[in-house]
Write a structure and sequence with these properties.
The structure is a single chain. The protein is of the alpha+beta class and 144 residues long. Helix content is 38%, strand content 22%. The protein has helices spanning 5-23, 68-84, 124-127, 130-143; strands spanning 33-38, 43-47, 53-58, 97-102, 108-115. Strands 3-2-1-4-5 form a five-stranded mixed sheet, covered by helices on one side.
Length: 144
């Protein structure tokens, strides 16, 4: 399942709107962003470390959807695109900070994006098959 471009734009607008509060903040904040998707009604809510709701947006395509892997894939892609565009560069937040997908109880499921000056987060897809390739490489080295 892929989100429509219109839905992706609405999601970006909601996250950008949320970020405006952090651009104008007088002092640097320490927080992470907790992203919760209610699969029953399709609402996506972003909260800070104090469980204060920062934004909410309705995702029609996610009504009745309960597959966290779908949420993870779409949100990771969207947040990475926004990060590459520099959407988070002017936030007045102490680095590193992250966007984390959480469950109904607020427990972390997976990091969607970690923002830090010196850190690069590799996706699962990039590392898929890495163990086998590394083992083959080492086997080849030891044979010589």
């Amino acid at each position: 399942m892929s989100l429509s471009r219109e839905t992706q734009n609405r999601l970006q607008e909601a996250i950008n709107k949320m970020g405006k509060d952090f651009i104008t903040a007088e002092e640097t904040r320490v927080t992470d962003f907790h992203v919760y998707v209610n699969g029953n009604n399709g609402d996506l809510t972003v909260m800070d470390d104090d469980d204060k709701r920062l934004t909410r947006v309705h995702i029609l395509e996610w009504e009745g959807e309960h597959n966290e892997e779908i949420f993870e894939k779409e949100l990771r892609s969207l947040l990475a695109e926004m990060h590459e565009k520099g959407c988070f560069d002017s936030l007045n937040i102490t680095k590193p900070y992250s966007f984390v997908l959480v469950d109904d109880d607020g427990q972390d499921i997976v990091d969607l994006l970690i923002v830090d000056d010196d850190t690069v987060i590799l996706s699962k897809d990039l590392l898929e098959g890495f163990d086998e390739e590394m083992n083959e490489f080492l086997r080849h080295l030891l044979e010589e």
